[in-house]
Design a protein that fits this description.
The chain has about 450 residues and is α/β, with parallel strands linked by helices. The chain has 13 helices and 17 strands. The strands form 5 sheets. A 5-stranded mixed beta sheet has the order 9-8-7-10-13. A 4-stranded mixed beta sheet has the order 4-3-5-6. α9 crosses α10 and α11 packs across α12. The protein is globular, with a radius of gyration of 22 Å.
Amino acid sequence: MMERFGITAAVNCTPSLDREFFPIGCFNRAFLRTAKKPVAIAVERADGQMASVHTFLHGTPEMLDADHYYINRLVKALLWVKGGFRVYTDDADSYAYLKDEYSAMGSQHFDFDFMAGVYEHPFEVVLTDKVPETKDSPEKMGGHLDGCRIGFDAGGSDRKVSAVVDGRTVYSEEVVWFPKTNADPDYHYDGIVAALKSAAEHMPRVDAVGVSSAGVYINNRPMTASLFLAVPKDLYDKKVKDIYIRAITDTFGSIPYSVINDGDVSALAGAMSLNDTSMLGIAMGTSEAGGFVDAQGCITGWLNELAFVPVDANPDAMRDEWSGDIGCGVKYFSQDAVIKLAPRAGIALNETLSPAEKLKVVQGLMEQDDPRAAEVYDSIGVYLGHTLAYYYEWYACRHVLLLGRVMSGKGGDRILAKCVEVLKEDYPALYGVMVPSLPDENFRRVGQSMAAASLPEIR
């Protein structure tokens, strides 16, 4: 049994290397069994789009800490799944609490600052008699295979590029780079241009370029992105917000291009690979990226930044260095998870190695069937099984495609097998309804760059 704030929940499957892992979905379901006071929450993002949730609290003094924790994590999940700069609630206590926590000096100051910057609007919490209902504006994107195309996927540890001619990949490459620690945006620009030129050499011409990149993108511009974490703000505004547009037009002139979040591209890659819709794509690499193609085959415009969505209610969960929050997806579904768990399994990692190199050490041990590495990947698989059940509450997806370097090789196979085992044992109603899967080895490593190539329409 797991317990926090007087809320207890039974968790059958726990990761052997993290027995204190308390799946947030299990906490929420236990919390709601005794909560009877109706409360509505909504977040507003660009162009009047809304995401609303009708839920319950206890509303009693003895359950105040539990109520506050639940509503805090719910709002954070709403913000990072759907996106938004304005929070509405019809509950006075929740309003007072959220207004204090989601402020410049509050515990959620990172979310407060981030959302204000992304949407270029001051973040605010509003008390209202009637909370707005959900309003979305999904749109079709991608799936274009005609012509000579370049797909570029900018990761935090390596960059991938593909040359695609009439739907056939004629060239792909991966190059190690270090964008997150480099403060000079010319380093990033030069790396992007080098990748574009490398792909262009393998085609007679370039008709269009599609870019998949970590971060939040509005009108092809990175409003914020971990790839440029070290770049000073003045240089970010001057040289980063149009970096992909400049790189493409400087190299190829006026051609069609699209730049979107790598998570959305992973979902598109999944939809293309299975020739189906209702696809949640999750890329586990330097961070955790998410994207969603709905049942109509549209990209929703949601933020889908799963790295910052809470997944663990353990009060001693690992802290994310960037956001300052604990228990969020980045520490469970990225190379950080492997690096976190490896020492617990008895694997010593040389601290002089980069995070990508540390991951490769564990991957190498897994390819040799080292039982310590197997325990690392099995533990991540348990994380994933519980968390996919929680993600289903937001996405109701039929498919989950698992991409990224963490899912490569035998380790990825073990993660998937353990994940399915958890779904079958702890969430039998979801088993077979939501199907997680892996693409083939080549596609799972460079599939996003190939899917990115299909983004722009050639008119």
